[in-house]
Structure to design on (209 residues):
């Protein structure tokens, strides 16, 4: 799903040298895991509301680069990988709340699963509601049940994937290129949903590293 975002995820060697000792994959992985565990432990042990809100809005004020440097190279089924994808989903929503709300709302109308209930967005889901959902999910990572937050993120991705597929079907004859783009996006959302669900299961078994 990362291809959907206009974000700088590649960094110069000098940046990595100053931050985590160069491009050594083992060093990058170690720092990713250490920072993810340290941040989560610190905030969840003392969830000061001001700190939590600053973390939720961090990428709004500072961009996504610093988060990407820390966690974007981590494997999907890991703590830093989960945190990176949570921030990425929120970024997607904040960059295009109207378009995302449209796809999500379509998904709620055609899905036969209970995912809209799990995701927990207000109904009907418009621009304001989808932004609130994004913030609630990220906030839940720091203050609530971590696995539940991941389950909500997974449900959001599944609903949006269904919405993408539905709209792609509508446009198949009239706008084939747009239809193809939405089909690809649906697959990425579906894949990301699977990754979130796997991370939630690992967290519940104390196995999310």
């Amino acid at each position: 799903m990362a291809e959907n975002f206009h974000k700088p995820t590649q960094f110069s060697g000098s940046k990595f040298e100053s931050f985590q000792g160069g491009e050594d994959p083992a060093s990058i992985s170690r720092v990713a895991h250490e920072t993810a565990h340290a941040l989560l432990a610190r905030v969840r042990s003392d969830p000061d509301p001001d700190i939590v809100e600053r973390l939720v809005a961090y990428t709004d004020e500072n961009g996504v680069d610093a988060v990407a440097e820390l966690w974007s190279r981590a494997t999907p089924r890991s703590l830093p990988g989960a945190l990176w994808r949570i921030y990425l989903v929120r970024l997607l929503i904040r960059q295009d709340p109207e378009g995302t709300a449209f796809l999500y709302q379509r998904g709620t109308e055609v899905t036969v699963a209970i995912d809209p209930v799990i995701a927990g967005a207000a109904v009907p889901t418009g621009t304001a509601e989808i932004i609130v959902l994004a913030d609630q999910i990220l906030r839940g990572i720091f203050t609530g049940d971590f696995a539940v937050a991941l389950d909500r993120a997974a449900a959001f991705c599944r609903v949006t994937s269904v919405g993408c597929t539905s709209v792609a079907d509508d446009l198949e004859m009239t706008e084939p290129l747009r239809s193809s783009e939405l089909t690809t996006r649906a697959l990425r959302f579906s894949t990301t949903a699977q990754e979130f669900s796997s991370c939630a299961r690992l967290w519940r078994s104390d196995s999310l590293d």
About this structure: The two ends are 22 Å apart (CA to CA). Confidence is low (pLDDT under 50) at residues 2-22. The CA atoms of residues 8 and 65 lie 6 Å apart.
